[in-house]
Amino acid sequence: MAGVTQTLPSPGALLPAAIEDDFVAERHQTWRKFSRHRLALSGAVVLLLLIVGAAFAPWLTHFDPSAIDTHWSGTPLAPGQFGHILGTDEIGRDLYTRLLFGARISLTLAISAVVIEIIIGTLIGAIAGFYGGRIDGALMRLTDTFLSIPLLPLLLVITGIVAASSSKAALNFVSIVLIIAALSWMNVARLVRGAFLSLREKEFCEAARAIGSNDTRIVLRHLLPNAVAPIVVQATLDVGNVILLESALSYLGFGIQPPTASWGSMLANAQENISIAPWAAIYPGLCIFITVLAVNYMGDGLRDALDPNVH
Amino acid sequence: MLTYTIRRILQAIPLLILISVILFAILHQMPGGPLAPYMQNPHITAADIARLKHNFGLDRPVWVQYVSWLGKYVTGDWGWSTMNSTPVTEAIMERLPATLELMGVSFTVSVLLGLVLGIVAAVKPYSPIDYFVTTFAFFGFSMPVFWFALMLQMIFSVGGIHFQAFGYAFDFNLPSAGATSTEGGDFIDRVRHLILPVTTLALIQLATWSRFTRASMQEVLHTEYMRTAAAKGLPFMRILLKHGLKNALMPVVTITALALPGLFGGAIITETIFAWPGMGRLFITALQQQDFSLLMAFLVVSAFLVVLFNLLADLTYGWLDPRVKYD
Question: A141 contacts in B (CB within 8 Å)?
Answer without folding.
Answer: 14-15, 18
